[in-house]
Design a protein that fits this description.
Strand content: 15-25%
Structural class: alpha/beta
Bound molecules: S-adenosylmethionine, iron/sulfur cluster
Strand order of the largest sheet: 7-8-9-6-5-4-3-2-1-10-11-12
CATH superfamily: Aldolase class I
CATH class: Alpha Beta
Helix content: 25-40%
Distance between the termini: 21 Å
Order of helices and strands: EHEHEHEHHEHEHHEEEEEEHH
Number of strands: 12
CATH architecture: Alpha-Beta Barrel
Number of helices: 10
Radius of gyration: 19 Å
Length: 325
């Protein structure tokens, strides 16, 4: 599918639940977060149906995300469904983004089902800080999951959201830790998606800060590696690959190849825009009618997002746990 601005759209991020066993302070409010009503959440059958229709429109890469995707009871059924699509060469890649808390339990299944890569979110390596930022999480659980996944040779990328006055002092140690474990790594700017308990300006640390620090300490060589995504990849003199995702300071919309579906069946062609279409309520229509709806929405994907860390968030009622990352 080519959109209105000539971008090839072939990557779907499907958030299969808005629920999560953690409460990261930059992702959702600490208290009174509203979740979708159970009745509005897509069933396994509906998820499979929507996935099939996207695959028919030309989606080749599918990332399962959330909320925390590994807490959904049918996670293995969904991944098995995708595995069969991949076996028939209908899709090329199956990816998962997870907070890693359930990784120890699921690593073997993830490996057996041929998931191509997993992104594990980790913003600190200090247990007390992990507990603070996730509102109660246990770092040990995540590290044990990573050990298990590494043992099974699952390809792992660590995603770290840069947070002012929180993890700038750990950038160097996280780089050496990732090197030690042969994990790829991405540093990400916090995005104003939903209003949380602190101002986004208080949280925001630009990737230029991390990049300069890493360059000074480890060197950074530009890599031509392109994923058609937002990350720009570099290699340090230690040999590890590091990406920087800068939605605020260096807009990457002109090369954006992705669209998103939430667990209540809303298709969002752009993370930073409120425009969406309701696929769940269209599921009674014929396949060709639904595909037309999808194609029309993709065609009209906005040219760019309008994130501004200083302004009141443009995306207000939606949080990253609903749209996924
Ligand atoms: N629960 C899973 C996890 O944490 O990996 C998947 C969903 S989570 C929403 C996906 C990614 O979004 C995580 O890497 C998380 O750190 C990131 N994220 C959450 N809120 C964010 C925000 N406001 N700005 C930037 N990244 C954010
Ligand atoms: Fe949960 Fe992921 Fe959001 Fe943290 S970032 S609260 S783990 S959905």
């Amino acid at each position: 599918m080519i959109d209105n601005f000539g971008r090839k759209i072939n990557y779907l991020r499907f958030s299969i639940t808005d629920r999560c066993d953690l409460r990261c302070k930059y992702c959702m409010p600490i208290k009174n977060q509203k979740f979708y009503k159970k009745d509005n959440i897509l069933t396994t059958l509906e998820i499979k149906k929507i996935l099939s229709l996207f695959i028919e429109t030309g989606i080749k890469k599918i990332r399962i995300t959330g909320g925390e995707p590994l807490i959904r009871k049918d996670i293995l059924e969904i991944i098995t469904f995708l595995k069969n699509k991949k076996k028939k060469k209908l899709i090329e890649e199956i990816l998962i983004t997870t907070n890693g808390t359930q990784l120890k339990k699921y690593a073997k299944n993830i490996s057996d089902l041929g998931v191509d890569r997993i992104n594990v979110s980790l913003d600190t390596l200090i247990p007390e800080k992990f507990q603070f930022i996730t509102n109660g999480g246990n770092l040990r659980q995540v590290l044990d999951g990573l050990v298990e996944a590494k043992k099974l040779k699952i390809k792992i990328k660590i995603n770290t959201v840069l947070l002012k006055n929180f993890n700038e002092d750990e950038i160097k140690s996280m780089v050496t830790w990732c090197k030690k474990h042969s994990f790829k790594q991405s540093f990400i700017e916090v995005m104003p998606v939903g209003e949380v308990n602190t101002s986004r300006t208080n949280q925001f640390l630009p990737v230029s800060y991390a990049k300069a620090l890493i360059k000074k300490n480890f060197g950074l060589e530009n890599l031509s590696l392109s994923t058609n995504g937002p990350s720009k990849y570099y290699k340090t003199s230690l040999g590890n690959v590091i990406g920087f995702i800068s939605p605020l300071t260096n807009n990457f919309c002109s090369s954006c190849n992705r669209i998103r579906v939430t667990s209540n069946g809303m298709l969002y062609p752009c993370l930073g825009d409120n425009g969406s279409v309701d696929l769940k309520s269209s599921l009674h229509k014929s396949d060709s009618e639904i595909i037309e709806i999808i194609k029309n929405s993709i065609y009209h994907k906005p040219e760019k997002h309008f994130f501004d860390i200083k302004e009141k968030s443009y995306v207000q009622d939606r949080f990253m746990n609903t749209t996924g990352g």
